[in-house]
Design a protein that fits this description.
- α2 packs across α3.
- The protein is mostly helical.
- The chain binds a DNA duplex (13 and 13 nucleotides) through α1, α2, α3 and β2.
Amino acid sequence: MSEGRFRQRVLSTVRRIPIGRVATYGDIARLAGRPRAARAVGNIMRDCRARDVPCHRVIAAGGAIGGYSDLPVKRALLRAEGLIVTSTRVKDFARKRWPERRKRR
DNA sequence: TATATGACAGCAT
DNA sequence: CATGCTGCCATAT
C-alpha cells in the first residue's frame, strides 16, 4: 500500500480537520513536520481515495479553493458543512481555518 | 543515484 | 486581480 512516512503523517493530520473547518496545504505540511512541503502535500492529496480522509477540507493559501479532482464537488462538500464558498475562495477563511492559530505573544 | 512530477507558496510584474 | 517564475519537496520511475 502507500509508502512514505510523511504521507502517513499527512493523512492522519488531514483526518483530524473538524467538519466545517479548513486547513491549507502549507498548514498540513507544517503540522506533519515539514513546513515547506506544501507542494508534496498536494501530490499526496491528489490520490486521496480513502473516504475517511476529508481532503476537500484542504485548500490553498489565503483561503483560495485550491485543487481537487472535481472542483464543483469540492465546493459542494464544503458548503454542505456550512461554509460559504465563492467560485474561488472560502469566505471568512481566517475564522474557519484549523487549527486555531497561536496568538502572538 | 538521478530526473521528472505536481490539488503549493510567495513574490514580482 | 491575473500571470509567471522561483524555491521547495516527497514520491515514482
